[in-house]
UniProtKB/TrEMBL annotation:
Protein name according to UniProt: YifB family Mg chelatase-like AAA ATPase
SMART domains: AAA (SM00382)
Family of the protein in this entry: Belongs to the Mg-chelatase subunits D/I family. ComM subfamily.
Superkingdom of origin: Bacteria
């Protein structure tokens, strides 16, 4: 006896998805299952999970020759989320599940007992299904809240294959089963950190505020215990809250990375702090099978903090140069190409020398050692960092005017609003995102204002890219001061911060 069944699923390429139709043709012949359409090992092994789950329902899977085609056949398929769609397509070959209109995506991994298990990346898979024109999605019960974060998509949860088949119109009365549960999402504490905890270092606090207002990259240099990490961890609290689409993108990246999904969208910008032993795959992303996002992608719309930056391998750090310019990460592997967003703010922290005490009078490092230490940070990478600030240790009992997170975030929000009005219609929302050519063409400044920057370029102390970045910082400072355009003082302060001189 022959039969034909079809079901819809989704394949991911980075954060983007492509609709996949799973076709099953069962016919007489030697018992054999052929899965075609560039499946990976996880998809090939789905046969055993599928046949066992169908047997647990008290039904028989096709006994003859069965061909399972995943189309488009030229697109690599990876992951266990194809299990449910393959099982339903098999059940449709015998008429157990009636055919549908192709607008229902089926996502979930099958256990041998027929229960449905959640999979990493359910949120981006559901987003991709909606973007492919599907109006309904069936997911494991544990993934309902995650998939429901996608607006306009009807989400149905099923604890097992039998329950999923019943939802799709099968005349079954499945027995109650205990659904597989998902791990709870970790609680974030960044929002509770207050800038008022920082004692002294007004220049560093001011630079942090400029970085937040203009989405500028920042490097802090100072001895151990000066407060570099404390400052960095308070940056997300003064950044503007994420827009709904940004929060959904951040949650999708975390879901794809295998992190437990949040019950609701988190509007606090993400904060990623990889260890200096991180590999290129950990920082940028990669993998031999499914390509996963690295820390740089997970920091999208937030902060990527590299503490002890000179301790990172130079080759790994230099991989950040392309995403710092383009805002995207493209990873090429033999199995395919994946692209992830990477519009993050880079924060670098470093000791002034290997012993960390240069500038305090107790340093024992030779000048050659200090040059070699900072030589691990390449010039092209540092040229993309807008602000350089010195963070010094403060004396005990120092207690002056402290800027709170609430005060700083209000100033940042007002500056961002001024920049957004100026950049209306361009697609950019902060001065740190504006390309140099557009800046020079659309927001030209008087030549007399730019004279200090021109002199710095002529002396080799500044590149043309560095000059553009200094001008963008000057615009951000003008926004913080409520000025319509940068003044010579703003240009001077921007140049001083660019060169790491206290302003």
């Amino acid at each position: 006896m022959s039969g034909f069944g079809r079901a819809a699923c989704v394949a991911l390429q980075g954060l983007a998805g492509v609709g996949v139709q799973i076709e099953v043709h069962a016919s007489a012949g030697l018992p054999r299952v052929h899965i075609v359409g560039l499946p990976d090992r996880a998809v090939q092994q789905a046969q055993h999970r599928t046949w066992s789950a169908i047997a647990r329902m008290g039904l028989s899977a096709p006994q003859g020759k069965t061909v399972i085609n995943l189309t488009p056949a030229s697109l690599p398929k990876a992951g266990t989320h194809f299990d449910l769609a393959m099982a339903v397509a098999v059940l449709r070959t015998s008429g157990v599940v009636p055919p549908d209109d192709g607008e229902t995506a089926l996502l979930g991994e099958l256990g041998l007992d027929g229960r449905l298990r959640p999979v990493a990346g359910t949120l981006p898979l559901a987003r991709a299904a909606a973007e492919a024109g599907m109006t309904r999605v069936v997911v494991p019960t544990a993934s309902v809240d995650e998939a429901s974060l996608v607006a306009g998509l009807r989400v149905l949860g099923a604890p097992s294959l039998a329950h999923a088949a019943a939802l799709l119109g099968a005349e079954l009365d499945p027995e109650p089963v205990e659904p597989v549960t998902a791990a709870p999402a970790p609680q974030r504490e960044a929002a509770a950190l207050d800038l008022a905890d920082v004692v002294g270092n007004r220049d560093a606090v001011a630079a942090l505020e400029v970085a937040a207002a203009g989405a500028h990259h920042l490097m802090m240099v100072g001895p151990p215990g000066a407060g570099k990490t404390m400052l960095a961890m308070r940056l997300p609290g003064i950044l503007p809250p994420l827009e709904p689409e940004q929060a959904l993108e951040v949650a999708s990246l975390r879901s794809l990375a295998g992190e437990p999904p949040p019950a609701t969208l988190d509007v606090v910008p993400p904060f990623e702090q990889p260890h200096h032993s991180a590999t290129a795959a950990a920082l940028i992303g990669g993998g031999s099978g499914t390509i996963r996002p690295g820390a740089a992608a997970r920091a999208t719309h937030g902060v990527l903090f590299l503490d002890e930056a000179p301790e990172f391998p130079r080759t790994v750090l230099d991989m950040l140069r392309q995403p710092l310019e383009s805002g995207t990460i493209t990873i090429h592997r033999a199995a395919g190409v994946a692209a992830f967003p990477a519009r993050f703010q880079l924060l670098l922290a470093a000791n002034p020398c290997p012993c960390g005490l240069f500038g305090t009078g107790d340093c024992t490092c030779a000048p050659q050692q200090r040059r070699r230490y900072f030589g691990r940070l390449s010039g092209p990478l540092l040229d993309r960092v807008d602000l350089h600030v010195r963070v010094d240790r403060v004396a005990p009992g120092l207690d002056g005017d402290r800027r709170t997170t609430a005060d700083a975030s209000a100033r940042v929000a007002e500056a961002r609003a001024r920049a957004a009005r100026r950049l209306a219609g361009t697609g950019w929302t902060a001065m740190g995102h504006v390309p140099g050519p557009w800046l020079r063409r659309s927001l030209p400044l008087d030549a007399s204002l730019l004279e200090p920057l021109v002199v710095a370029v002529e002396r080799g102390a500044l590149t043309m890219r560095g000059m553009d970045r200094a001008v963008r910082v000057a615009w951000t400072m003008a926004d913080l001061d409520g000025a319509d355009a940068p003044t010579r003082a703003h240009i001077g302060r921007a140049l001083a911060l660019r060169k790491g001189i206290p302003a």
